[in-house]
């Protein structure tokens, strides 16, 4: 497989239309996976997935990686950088580990660290931003562990299962990342 960047146990490669599979689709229809994401409110089809992948690969304003297990090349999730601002040197990060058997083992941390290294060292980005919902403590912990700080909060912004949930914005500067 075409490895673009290597982490310790995972690697990142360009996502391709052929990654649109029943397996990937099952992640988007898994409530446990999507509860911290904007996707999942509406059901997804394979066709939606192909269109989405096409939209991310046809612009330089998004860099979308498939996250793969080094041992078996299994596609276990995606990470993307988008909304690049080349004047202020910022961009936004989005993470999805769809294969739940990989959760809780430090894989998410490894994937974000690998992607930040790429953003700061190869793309010359100064600051990476992200949005995270208050009902996603694992993601908040992961980001804080790496050095992201909360920068803002949209109070009761997200409707989830009969409740309104806060949406936080977090950011990290290149000089705060080891
Ligand atoms: C959120 C997600 C990326 C986490 O990935 P992961 O590989 O399990 O993360 P890691 O193991 O690297 O780190 C998670 C941390 O949160 C902690 N954690 C897990 N569940 C927790 C909880 N309910 N409350 C507090 N902390 C929790 C873990 O213990 C770990 O911290 P530690 O290293 O100090 O022990 C993954 O579950 C995922 O992709 N979920 C679906 C999509 C999503 O929510 N994406 C993020 C959108 S902002």
Structural write-up:
With 178 residues, the protein is of the alpha+beta class. It has a domain at 5-126: Gcn5-related N-acetyltransferase (GNAT) (Aminopeptidase, 3-Layer(aba) Sandwich). The chain is 27% helix and 36% strand. The protein has five helices and eight strands; from the N terminus they run E-E-H-H-H-E-E-E-H-E-H-E-E. It has an eight-stranded mixed β-sheet with strand order 1-2-3-4-5-6-8-7, with helices on both faces. Strand 4 and strand 5 (90-97) form a beta hairpin. Helix 4 (107-121) crosses helix 5 (137-146). The protein starts with a strand and ends in a 5-residue tail after the last strand. Coenzyme A binds at residues 33, 36-37, 95-97, 103-109, 132, 136-139, 141-142, 145.
Question: Helix and strand layout, with pairings?
Answer:
Layout: E1 5-6, E2 10-14, H1 22-28, H2 31-34, H3 46-57, E3 62-69, E4 75-85, E5 90-97, H4 107-121, E6 127-133, H5 137-146, E7 149-160, E8 163-173
What is the strand tally? 8
pLDDT < 50 stretches = none
Q: Bin the strand percentage.
A: 35-45%
Shape: globular
Structure ligands? coenzyme A
How would you describe this structure in keywords?
binds coenzyme A, 8 strands, 8-stranded mixed β-sheet, 5 helices, globular, Aminopeptidase, single chain, 178 residues, alpha+beta
Quick overview of this protein structure:
By secondary structure, the chain is α+β, with helices and mostly antiparallel strands. The chain contains five helices and eight strands.
């Amino acid at each position: 497989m075409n490895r673009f960047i290597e982490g310790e146990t995972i690697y990142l490669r360009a996502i391709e239309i052929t990654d649109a599979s029943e397996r990937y689709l099952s992640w988007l229809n898994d409530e446990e996976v999507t509860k911290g994401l904007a996707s999942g409110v509406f059901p997804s089809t394979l066709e939606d997935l192909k269109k989405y992948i096409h939209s991310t690969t046809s612009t330089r304003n998004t860099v979308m990686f498939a996250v793969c297990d080094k041992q078996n090349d299994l596609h276990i999730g995606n990470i993307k950088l988008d909304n690049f601002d080349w004047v202020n040197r910022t961009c936004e990060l989005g993470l999805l580990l769809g294969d739940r058997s990989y959760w809780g083992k430090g894989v998410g941390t490894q994937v974000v660290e690998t992607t930040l290294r790429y953003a700061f060292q190869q793309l010359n980005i100064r600051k990476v931003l992200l949005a995270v919902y208050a009902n996603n403590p694992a993601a908040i912990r992961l980001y804080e562990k790496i050095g992201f700080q909360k920068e803002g909060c949209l109070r009761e912004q997200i409707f989830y299962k009969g409740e309104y949930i806060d949406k936080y914005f977090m950011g990290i500067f290149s000089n705060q990342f080891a």
